Amino acid sequence: MSGIYVHVPFCRTACHYCDFHFSTALSGVDSFVQAMLKEIEMRRDSGVWKDVCFETLYLGGGTPSVLDASDLKLIVESINSAFRNPLGQNAVFLESTIEVNPEDVNVESLKGWRAAGFDRLSIGVQSFHDSQLKWMNRKHSGKEALRAVELASRAGFNRISVDLIYGLPQSEGDWAKTVETALSLPIDHISCYALTVEPRTVLGARVKKGIEVEMPDERLERDYLFICDSAKKAGFDHYEVSNWAKTEKSRAVHNSSYWSGAPYLGLGPGAHGFRSNERYSVVSNNHLYISSINSGKLPDTSEVLSKRDRCNEVMMTGLRTAKGVDFELLEKKWGYNPAKINSTQWNARLKSGDIIPVRADNEIYFRIPEKKWLIGDSIASDLFVT
Fold it and tell me: What does the pLDDT look like over 255-273, one tens digit per residue?
């Protein structure tokens, strides 16, 4: 299942921890939208994607909800008419997600997003505590976050995901209250990420100067295990290291396609795309993006991945899921079986319980157990074919 990702590189304020590409200069929105419409045409005319059926659409960023509903509708309609959809031209995608911030959610904006074709919201809550939101430089309050979810539910959005961050500075019980509050809301999905210190951010600079300190691994593990346990008790399925779904139909179809290695089209500055073992990235600079598009050139940097690269990537993303990895299938498809090539590391990980067998689709898969997902990348990297 293939999807289309649109990166909207604008935010009203700069979160202190974020290293994604964005700009707070909203005066550039109109020029961006016009360039986006041209990029869509250029991608279509390139012919690279003519035989790919796209079933999902995802607008991320940045903050897509800073765009007017009319601009969002224009972008979606242009995408629908330019690329193949299994339901037919100008059909609504099987899943259309837009990331929104609580301060942008109101009755009118919700109507506009529905009119633009979106049926799933990903709301950037992060926390329900005002002190933490202020520390992160978020624009909304805890009450606004609650109201945003409730308004979206009343507006008919049956698929609502909230983003949360753990490992924040907190008083005793803050994280538990955030998790319990989220699980009490009319949502069907949670994405939850550890606070990470990135060098080119306000938080990174403060840590470097000694103004802030990184949270110890023990705190991160405690917070992570708390949401794992709480979500399970609330009936949520932990289907990927950072994602929980109320039902199987609640899973993020678009993101799942990334993990399966399906082709995906990326649009906008800072976006990435992938097709036929070639990955491309669009320049992460709004001015360069717009000027390049206006001159008729796609501002891409690309790399061709070897079969070994693909094997390693599919293994790593697969080990981040509850389904796990079929290592025999890896060998059939890419010519490498990391379990055989790195047999010493493989047997050690099996013995320690870092990797366990599971049965799915009448086949034997191997996965990392939930309690060890926090060290999943280091487990996977031990098995990389080099």
Answer: 998 888 899 999 999 999 9
Residue 261: predicted pLDDT: 85
Give the integer Cα–Cα distance in Å for 218 and 159.
33
Report the alpha-carbon distance of residue 264 to residue 4 in Å, rounded. 6
pLDDT digits over 336-375, tens only? Answer: 999 999 999 999 999 999 999 998 778 899 999 999 999 9
Q: Which long-range contacts (CB under 8 A, 24 or more apart) does 205-208 make?
A: 206/16
CATH class given for the domain over 309-382: mainly alpha
pLDDT in tens, 23-35: 999 999 999 999 9
pTM, to two decimals: 0.95
pLDDT band (50, 70, 90) for residue 90 = low
Say how far apart CA 74 and CA 33 lie, in whole Å: 9
- CATH superfamily label, 2-259: Aldolase class I (3.20.20.70)
Angstrom distances, CA of residue 274 to CA of 43, 202, 266: 13, 31, 8
Query: What is the full DSSP assignment across 56-95?
Result: EEEEEES-GGGS-HHHHHHHHHHHHHHSB-TT-TTPPPSE
The domain locations on the chain are 2-259, 309-382
- Determine contact, residues 137/104, Cβ cutoff 8 Å: no
Interatomic CA distance for residues 35 and 6, integer angstroms: 12
Helical axes 29-46 vs 286-294, angle rounded to 10°:
50
List the 2-8 sheet strands across, edge first. 237-240, 243-245, 189-194, 159-166, 120-126, 95-100, 54-61, 2-8, 264-267, 272-275, 278-282, 300-304
pLDDT one-digit tens code per residue, 203-226: 999 999 999 999 999 999 999 999
Q: Which residues, at least 6 apart from 107, have a Cβ–Cβ distance to it below 8 Å?
A: 151, 155
Instruction: 167-175: list long-range contacts, CB under 8 Å, 24+ apart.
Output: 167/194, 167/195, 167/215, 167/219, 167/220, 167/223, 168/127, 168/132, 168/135, 168/136, 168/195, 168/215, 169/132, 169/135, 170/129, 170/132, 174/127, 174/129, 174/132, 175/223, 175/226
Query: Going along 204-246, which residue ranges are E strands?
Result: 237-240, 243-245
The residue behind tokens 């139909």 is 249
